[in-house]
What we know:
The protein is mainly alpha-helical. The protein has one domain. 77% of the residues lie in helices and 0% in strands. The chain is built from 7 helices and no strands. The two termini are 22 Å apart.
Amino acid sequence: MKTNRRTAVWVGIFFIIGTVSGVLSEVNLGPFLEDQDYLANIATNETKIILGALFILIMGFALTMVPVLLYPIFKKYNHALALGAVVFRGALEAVVYMALAALWLMLLTLSQEFSLAGSSEIGMFQHLGALFTKTETWLAHIVSIVFSLGALMIYWVFYRSKLIPRWLSLWGLIGGLLYLVSPMVGMFGIDWGFLMMPLALQEMVLALWLIIKGFDPAAFASLSGKQV
């Protein structure tokens, strides 16, 4: 029981660390791609870019730990979905976050080289910059799709297991579906970022619930040998 309580607390903490790190990465990096002179400005804001990349890595690590910690419990309810959550919200998500962080650091190097380039080389750097920024956008869509698919796996197991209140699991399932729509339409140039908000809010409520309340002790009575 103490192990389960400890797991719940750590899952809640990692949810919070991941969300806060994601917000801080956006604060540091978000404004640059909206600036037409981003190639010139990134080089003069090296600290912000490096911090932003580090926050992406911290977010990736924290969110990866959530399904890893839940796996020993989830596998007793549904081994396939428990493993799927580790793959999607663990391994795949971590890889894409590392790629995003690396891309920003490469963009920083490109910007530094751009500041030293002669007039004849400016066009080449601008084309490279456009390639990097477009790749960053595609990776952001991909990680959002992977994230939401993993979330749906997690909240389905939560819903069936009753480890947390069903209203909270249902909120996560609906939020996960809405979250999935946002990057899918985003690939066609439609900005529906507001659809990500319900799941973002739900995961903060869930984090606080797990830290304060933990898992429902009654749910563990049905763990032994049960498969959904």
